[in-house]
Amino acid sequence: MPGSVDYLFSLFGFLFEAAFVVCLIRQKASGRYFALGLYMLSSFVLSIVRYVILLQLGFLSDQYIYFYYYSDAFLTICLFLVLISLFQIVFEDMGIRRHLRVGALLLLGGTAWFSYMVVLRVATDPGLSWKMTTRFVVEMSQNLYFVGVVLTYLLWFATATMRENRSRLIQIVLALGIYFSAFAANYAFRDLYPQFRAIWLYVPPVMGVALPLAWFIAFIHTPEEARLATARVVPAPRHH
Amino acid sequence: MIAALIFVVSAAALLQFFVSYCRSLIAAYGQVELSEQTREVAGIDDHIVYGDDFHRLLQLVGLCPEPGDDRVEIWSVRTYYRLLDALRAAFRPLMPGVSEWAERERISCSYFAAVTLDRRITYNRDLMAQQMSHKA
Lengths: 240, 136
Description:
The structure holds two protein chains of two kinds. Chain A is mainly α. Chain A has a single domain, classed as Up-down Bundle (Rhopdopsin 7-helix transmembrane proteins), CATH 1.20.1070. Chain A has eight helices and no strands. In chain A, helix 1 packs antiparallel against helix 2. The C terminus of chain A is likely disordered. The N and C termini of chain B lie far apart (72 Å). The model of chain B has no long low-confidence stretch (mean pLDDT 86).
C-alpha cells in the first residue's frame, strides 16, 4: 500500500505538472513546446484517473495494476515523442523534420519488436503466458527508457557540437536526460538487486516530481531568448 | 550481465546529465553582475569570490526570507559542490589538472551562491518597499 510519503510525492508531482502547463500557456509557448505540454497534461489527467481507481478498487486490484502499467507505457511513449520534438527544435534549421519522424517511428517499432521477442521467450512457460501483454508493456517501457537515455545523450552531444546556446532548451534536454537515465538505471538496479526495494521503489516518485519541477524552473527562470556558452556546460576538465 | 551493463551506462549518463544541468544553472547565474550592496553584505572585496566562500554565502542566503523559487537550484548546486570537493580531494595528488578544474568550478558555485543572495536581497527590498507604500 502507498504510504504518506508516496501520496506526498504524488501531490507535488501533480501540482508541478499543472503549474508547468499553466506556465506554458501563460508564456504563449504551448505551440513551440506542444509535445512537452501534451505530456504533462496527459500525466496530470492519468494521475487523477490512477488515484480514483486506487481509491475505489484498491492498490492490489487487477484494474489498478493494469491501469498503472498501461498508463506508464503510454506516458513513456509520450516522453519519447517529447524527445523527438526536442530533436526537431534543435535541428529546425536543417529541414530534416520528416526524416526525424520516420527515424523515431522506426526506433519505436524496433523497440516494440525487441521487447516482444524478449517476452515471447518467457511466454513459452505455460504458467506465465497469460501475463504476456502486461509483460510486454513493462518490458517496452524499460527498453524505451534506455533508448531515451541514448537518444538524449546524442541530442546533448549534438547541442554541444552545434554550439546550441538556448539556455532554456539546454535545461529542458538535461532534465529529460536525468529523468530517462534515472529510470533506466533504476530498472536495471531492480533486476540486479530485487531485495533493495527501499531504494528502487522511491526513484520513480522522486523523478515524477523532479522532471516537472525542473521544466517549470526552466520556464519561469530562463527566458526563451536567454543564451549561454555551451562550452561552459560540457563537463570536460581542461589540462594544461 | 545485460542489466549490469545498462545500470553502469545509465548511472554514468545520469551523473553526466546532472553535472551538466548544474553547470547550465551556474552558467546562467554567472552572467549576472553582483550589486554593490550584496558585495558589502557578503564581504566580497575586489570582485573576487573564492571557492571556499560557498558555505558561508549559503548561510547568508539562509538568513534571507526566501522567494521560494530557488530551493531546487540551491540543492542541485550544493550537491554538485560536494561532488567537486570529493573530486578535488581525490585527484589533488594524482592529477593536479583535474583538481585545478574542480577548484575553478567551486569558484563558479560560490558565485552562484552570491547571485542567489543578491536575488534574495533584491526580493526582500522590493517586498519591504511594497509594504511601506501600502502603509503610506
